[in-house]
Write a structure and sequence with these properties.
481 residues, 23 strands, alpha+beta, 5-stranded mixed barrel, 8-stranded mixed beta sheet
Length: 481
């Protein structure tokens, strides 16, 4: 059987078993990762998985079933079991009709592949290992007590079929790398990472890792970690803060991306990371931030980690405003949640494997460029702090009140960077914080987050966050005694 044959068989069996709608996703994923510590390879992981997952709709309720086998009999069994599970759930009273359960989706037939100049799985393991061992050895040489490096590669193929006529195949290749230096000081440890706390990832080939050039940054990272152990503590109080692009990506992820997931807004998602402070009655009118705040949902962004051709419901990727000129304009939605909310768009449903039910997930949620540069923001700041690179985060279960810690900071005095500061933190309340953004850089980088958790059983999502340095006024920083 071809992969499409297996998906066709699963959908046919679900319909024959009583489903009014069914779809099937055949997925084949290869994964590879390697890590090094202090100049030596510590771990190599390689694994492969394939199977088919089937959704069936009966009486307004979903059933899902997956099998790690693509022969005709097993694919059909999965379709029948998905329909049976849906029928059992449909005994719940007051469910909407199947006709109203999903917003309209025109059948799509097509193929999509992420750009990949160098197949990451074809690069010799010896070359990848040399990269990590040389970078970590250099950090050790420069005084790091613990020097780590790693890379991750995902090669995912999908074949999607629906009873409405969708027939889509996609090939998504993703990779990225990171290094980190830890220095143990007098009663404390300090960490510096590059290019971010977790690494930089995208839907690109090994050329992304080569451009990151972790080995060239190893000495600087170790030097800065060592310097942090001698640096003064970040002061406490209210001040102007310039936040670096990598930390801005996480700020967007936590205080915007999760908050605009429609299943959280509807109260469907609460057990894992909470709900949302947003109210659908205010969509189109709520002031989320300053006029500089323009955040878009854009799975078409070339090379970003949340990019694709179609989501896992067969909705074509498209760009949409989440916040425009500070006003809340859009959400991350699926066909079912959009129907409940009375919206006419979807496109943000994905699963992390064939054995998991697709759910609303972030795609690429990021800022559009501002009119400034980082240098201009620093020059325009008489007294403030520049913070960069995430170290810790905390946000309440409505995605509203937050506190973030960064790896490094610098004083800003009279428009110039001054002394290094350690253990910088800042805190805020979402809309108040975003309303204080008065300068934004044009230097957008599509940061990738490969470890976004959601759902029960848990799923790991890959999301992208185009972001740039930004300035915020009257921000609470440091730890009060």
């Amino acid at each position: 059987m071809t992969h499409f044959d297996a998906a066709d068989a699963a959908v046919e069996a679900a319909l024959a078993a009583g489903a009014s709608y069914a779809d099937a996703r055949v997925m084949h994923r290869r994964f590879e990762s390697m890590s090094a510590r202090n100049g030596d390879i510590e771990d190599l992981t390689q694994r492969e998985s394939a199977g088919v997952g089937v959704r069936a709709l009966v009486g307004g309720c979903w059933g899902f079933f997956g099998v790690p086998d693509l022969d005709d009999a097993e694919a059909r069994r999965a379709g029948v079991r998905a329909a049976e599970i849906a029928a059992a759930s449909a005994t719940v009273p007051n469910r909407r009709s199947d006709r109203d359960a999903l917003i309209r989706s025109d059948p799509e037939v097509g193929s999509w592949a992420s750009e990949c100049l160098i197949d990451p799985l074809s690069v010799p393991l010896s070359d990848k290992g040399d990269l990590l061992t040389s970078a970590t050895a250099e950090m050790r040489k420069q005084g790091a007590d613990i020097a780590t490096g790693s890379y991750d590669i995902w090669d995912t193929r999908k074949w999607f079929v629906s009873s409405e006529g969708h027939r889509i195949d996609q090939h998504v290749r993703e990779c990225g790398a990171a290094i980190s230096a830890t220095v143990i000081g007098d009663g404390e440890t300090q960490v510096r990472s590059y290019p971010s706390r977790r690494g930089q990832f995208g839907t690109r080939g090994w050329e992304l890792v080569e451009e990151t050039d972790v080995a060239a940054q190893a000495a600087r990272i170790a030097d800065e970690a060592r310097a942090l152990t001698r640096a003064p503590q970040c002061p406490a109080g209210e001040t102007t803060v310039i936040i670096g692009g990598e930390q801005m990506a996480l700020q967007i992820h936590e205080s915007v991306g999760h908050a605009i997931e429609l299943d959280r807004i509807l109260g469907w998602e609460a057990a894992y990371a909470g709900t949302s402070w947003l109210d659908l009655s205010q969509l189109g009118s709520l002031k989320y931030g300053s006029e500089l705040m323009n955040i878009v949902i854009d799975p078409t962004y070339p090379g970003a980690l949340g990019s694709f051709g179609w989501d896992d419901e067969g909705t074509r990727a498209h760009k949409r405003d989440a916040v425009r000129n500070g006003i809340w304009k859009g959400v991350l939605a699926g066909r079912e949640s959009a129907a409940v909310a009375g919206l006419d768009y979807a496109g943000s449903v994905r699963a992390d494997g064939w054995s998991r039910l697709p759910m609303v997930r972030m795609t690429n949620v990021g800022l559009e460029p501002g009119p400034h540069t980082l240098e201009e923001m620093i020059a325009a700041t008489d007294d403030g702090i520049y913070m960069d690179m995430n170290r810790s985060w905390s946000i309440d279960d409505r995605r509203l009140n937050f506190q973030f810690g960064c790896q490094i900071a610098y004083e800003i005095k009279n428009g110039k960077l001054g002394r290094m500061l350690k253990n910088p933190t800042y805190t805020g309340i979402g809309p108040k914080f975003w309303a204080s953004m008065d300068m934004l850089s044009s230097e957008i980088v599509p940061w990738g987050t490969p470890n976004c958790g959601k759902g029960q059983p848990g799923q790991t999502g890959h999301t992208g966050h185009p972001a740039a340095p930004a300035r915020f006024t009257n921000v609470r920083v440091g730890v009060r005694g």
